[in-house]
Amino acid sequence: xxxxxxxxxxxxxxxxxxxxxxxxxxxxxxxxxxxxxxxxxxxxxxxxxxxxxxxxxxxxxxxxxxxxxxxxxxxxxxxxxxxxxxxxxxxxxxxxxxxxxxxxxxxxxxxxxxxxxxxxxxxxxxxxxxxxxxxxxxxxxxxxxxxxxxxxxxxxxxxxxxxxxxxxxxxxxxxxxxxxxxxxxxxxxxxxxxxxxxxxxxxxxxxxxxxxxxxxxxxxxxxxxxxxxxxxxxxxxxxxxxxxxxxxxxxxxxxxxxxxxxxxxxxxxxxxxxxxxxxxxxxxxxxxxxxxxxxxxxxxxxxxxxxxxxxxxxxxxxxxxxxxxxxxxxxxxxxxxxxxxxxxxxxxxxxxxxxxxxxxxxxxxxxxxxxxxxxxxxxxxxxxxxxxxxxxxxxxxx
Amino acid sequence: xxxxxxxxxxxxxxxxxxxxxxxxxxxxxxxxxxxxxxxxxxxxxxxxxxxxxxxxxxxxxxxxxxxxxxxxxxxxxxxxxxxxxxxxxxxxxxxxxxxxxxxxxxxxxxxxxxxxxxxxxxxxxxxxxxxxxxxxxxxxxxxxxxxxxxxxxxxxxxxxxxxxxxxxxxxxxxxxxxxxxxxxxxxxxxxxxxxxxxxxxxxxxxxxxxxxxxxxxxxxxxxxxxxxxxxxxxxxxxxxxxxxxxxxxxxxxxxxxxxxxxxxxxxxxxxxxxxxxxxxxxxxxxxxxxxxxxxxxxxxxxxxxxxxxxxxxxxxxxxxxxxxxxxxxxxxxxxxxxxxxxxxxxxxxxxxxxxxxxxxxxxxxxxxxxxxxxxxxxxxxxxxxxxxxxxxxxxxxx
Lengths: 398, 398
Description:
Two copies of one chain form a homodimer. The first copy, chain A, is α/β, with parallel strands linked by helices and about 400 residues long.
């Protein structure tokens, strides 16, 4: 048996033993290898039928009556409660709606206000996904704070008596590095500041433990590992202990204590609903709700175990299939520092990714020189990992 | 012929002569009377098939590739350009995305910043839909302005050298009163301030003329007369002359000049895209785009003419069918002051509306005592108006 045959044989055995493998049937996939679920998750089979029902019956036939009778009005909190167990939150702390960027604004401004007077500095992960930095800059400008970008590892030492809020990514979108959520959270809280975690690249890929680790606020998108569909609404977590004092910069009528009272004065709703803004986007929200159905009975520990096994195996296959010196992993080797993707630095990365996609291996390119491969444990298997590495080697050899 | 038969005979003749009447076939409707299109527009028949294609083919089969190849990325500007002619705007000034409330925040903060230093007052329509007032209060707080609620008719006299921005509704959501957009706009601009018009209750029901009247900024929802579906994304208009200096409080990565450059520093995009924030909500956006197809070849002058004829006829039928003293119209009688709805003050309005809905006449109730009937010229006819008034009379007589 050749080394390649040995890898393929191991992949087959790992796939056969994979308890999550049967979940792949719940998604629409083809005979390619889809390693871009960290950008846009695959379509869950339950979604098209549910969305057709929402459109044709709930909207088409029942129209306005569906706001109450079909539960449209309460969908933001109900969908939030479906996400809650995936990020280690008790019910009643997450609300779904608006984009990730808008939720970053709510969370960072809200955190600054919760921190109280005398604190006028916001720390932000310097390697963050750009939107977080741009929005944090706006939040700083509009709350009279200064913004200080820092490496996440330096945040515990930097948070001090002037720090109001800290915005940090759980997993770096580019490198796939997993940051120390428990440690950074504890340090920020010890400094009297509040931490906002961006879970875009971790929710649905690994355990998060928001409640367990005492996180203050968190936000995340739902179209990556949560498979909500293109641009599906994001979510906001405000820990129960902060809800009563949470002061949103976007107090739309949906966050009013009595929305249909139509009163001129604003009185904030209790609970997670305080994080709502305007009329929720029902088609996308209910598509997401249907998509979240695949998580019933899924163990996040099993997801994490498979994710690490997949990325370990992919890296091993890359070492075997790709000639030395052509790619370099910028994703940490240590499991404790790795999310659910592998990022490889590569010359001509954009061209290489185009060639991979043309051959059915879909990852993505991030400027200037990164090939990014996301491993979604619910529908990616070990044979996929071996094939992706093998095709990468073929492309690089030309 | 009885008076009732005479009204019904006139209704039949008006419907037979109605050039817009054939558009009703493009919507999913039943044998009831739907007078709540000013809250949630009926389902256009083109939407379910298009949305199924977006979900099953574009998302399901092409996944991430659809961002480019299916034109997802450019949908916010493309859909904005479909709305533009409906509100009298040249192309390139409207972008679709986010909720109405979020767009009010962008527009009001943006207007204050455009107004420049030394202006620290925001005027707001005192009878506005509540979310506009709540968000304007937040915008005032975050820009160091004071907020002054005023009757729209008093705005021209009140706008002065301290005024930065004015937020006013084109049509009042409760009374259906149409405010003087040309006159208020001219007065606000003459005072050196900027005006933001909320078009939620006018776009798609009557001509707006944003460019013609020199409006600075405008926002609106798309789920009322534009039939985009529950919670479909709203839009932002920034007049071309302001785009270069428009400074959004929500500068998400989608509004960056080079979004995929993933650079830490923010550089705003040119044009309407500067009003974008985060990843657009594609399912709802493309449902809206399909819904807007019904407007091809529709004359807004004809829409306005029919709208006024419908509300006139409904008021006449109400006078005939409803015993004296039970309802009072709070919608102005003068055409120049009327939008496309009729609001009737009525004792026990909530109970009366429930009874109407149970008998197939769907309007809505607005606290404390208003029955609200919206007339959507694309799919409501004169026989509908007569029947609604007749059933209202029957309900009130008990």
